[in-house]
Amino acid sequence: MAERGASARREPGAVRPGGRTARVRAAVLRATGDALVEHGFDRLDLGEIARRAEVGRTTVYRRWGNPTGLVVDLLAEMAETSLPRTDTGSLREDLRANARLVCRTLTDPRQGPLFRAVIAAAACDERAAEALRRFYRVRVAEWAPCVVAAVERGEVPAGTDADEVIRAVSAPLYYRLLASGDPLDEATADRAVAAAVAAARAGVYGGEPG
């Protein structure tokens, strides 16, 4: 996605070379994710990350600089490796695949705590916050074409804001993760989809209902 390369000033760890450097990056980011899951952002320590990744401390300090640099690069890596959208030919089924993917991610024993940790980091560091916003821009842009295709098929009105529909599907799931603590399951995901599709058809997200 274009957002990742838009800034003239590269974030720490932003270069994506191959070979040994790529292996070092993978090991460091895996160690960063493990540490975030276990201890959270406030206890993220570059020396500990170097030990876990079995790389030199100077390598970690030189490339990532500080805990925020690690979180920024981890979010970029998460965006790069996220699963692509589905294309079923039905808006409801496409969005259901999206919602269930989000649900599985947020309830995963590793990914759920990891998302809580990076969101906590974003709440107290503006660079981490921008990296998190960039991550979600990438994910929304990946799924928005399913809404565009639905407009072309006549499932929802012309002028429907595709990005807003995708956000509407995910928002109730993140609310349960971060605020209410209510269960997250496929039924919850499917209800979020049903609400988003009904609202889109009614013109809530732009356009005029058919």
From TrEMBL:
Lineage, highest ranks first: Bacteria, Bacillati, Actinomycetota, Actinomycetes, Kitasatosporales
Protein name in the entry: TetR family transcriptional regulator
Species per Swiss-Prot/TrEMBL record: Streptomyces mimosae
DNA-binding residues: 45-64
Keywords from the named record: DNA-binding, Transcription, Transcription regulation
GO MF annotations in UniProt: DNA-binding transcription factor activity; transcription cis-regulatory region binding
All copies of domain HTH tetR-type, residue ranges: 22-82
Keyword Nucleus: no
InterPro entries: Homeodomain-like_sf, HTH-type_TetR-like_transc_reg, HTH_TetR, Tet_transcr_reg_TetR-rel_C_sf, TetR_C
